[in-house]
Amino acid sequence: MIFDEQTARQVANSLLQIKAVKLSPNQPFTWASGLKSPIYCDNRKALSYPDIREFIRNELTRAVLEMYKGVDVIAGVATAGIPQGVLVAQELKLPFVYVRSSKKSHGMTNQIEGELPEKSSVVVIEDLVSTGKSSLNAVYALREAGAKICGMAAIFTYELPVADKNFEDAGCQLVTLSDYNILIQEAVRGNYITQDDMKSLMEWRKDPQAWSDARQNL
Fold first, then answer.
1. Alpha helices in 145-193 (DSSP H)
2. Backbone angles phi and psi of 149, in degrees to 5
3. Tens digit of pLDDT for each residue in 48-87?
4. What's the CATH number of domain 5-209, 3.40.309.10, 3.30.465.10, 3.40.50.1240, 3.40.50.2020?
5. CB 99: neighbour CB atoms within 10 A?
6. Beta-carbon neighbour count of residue 79 at 10 Å?
7. Domains in the chain: boundaries
């Protein structure tokens, strides 16, 4: 669910303006998984723009305060969720930890870096949610370490059905500043894409694999 519609539209427009989000249904991008996608999102670019960075920090902080109560610790998902999580933790004057994708193969073999008191109530900060798999790996690691997960706050979600199911199965609430549907609306309004592009982009969100397979065969 989005936190606030006005915020969602402002974040979407900011990401489009700085080209953190690129839309190309006719010349799709290839994800690391091999999936063809008409959208490429790199929210880390927002960190280079102080006004946008501040707005995202403030809105993530507001989302944590309004949506989750009794938070003890902020956790960032490595790697892109780390800077956003640090900014939120600093604003809230709360401890911060971050969660690796897997345990280190050397030293203390930590997966969670930082001090996490047992039974802490934690909000996880993420920058982008696609299928939710990597984001929820962090949730599972924190739970295994004894933490109580209040929920997750992220900048953006592709709103893929598989992600909705994964978060529901994990019993983890997800709140985002913006989402795919609003981004596409703002992209049409700002003449970044055409109505025909919009149709293709919405088809991708419903079934990314079928959309990708169709492009592979062209």
1. 161-170, 180-189
2. -90, 115
3. 999 999 999 999 999 999 999 999 999 999 999 999 999 9
4. 3.40.50.2020
5. 29
6. 12
7. 5-209
Q: Tell me 101's DSSP state.
A: S
- Structure tokens that stand for 18 in this block: 């700085």
Tokens of 203: 């088809």
* Nearest Cα residue to 30 out of 203, 216, 156: 216
Predicted TM-score (pTM) above 0.90: yes
Q: Residue 202: which residues within 8 A CB-CB, separation 6 or more?
A: 184
Q: Using one digit for the tens of pLDDT, what is the confidence trace for 165-188?
A: 999 999 999 999 999 999 999 999
> Which tokens hold the place of 176?
């985002």
Distance, in Å, from the CA atom of 162 to the CA atom of 118, rounded to the nearest integer, reads 31
Place of tokens 């960032």: 76
Please report which helix (H) or strand (E) contains residue 8, including its range. Answer: helix 5-17
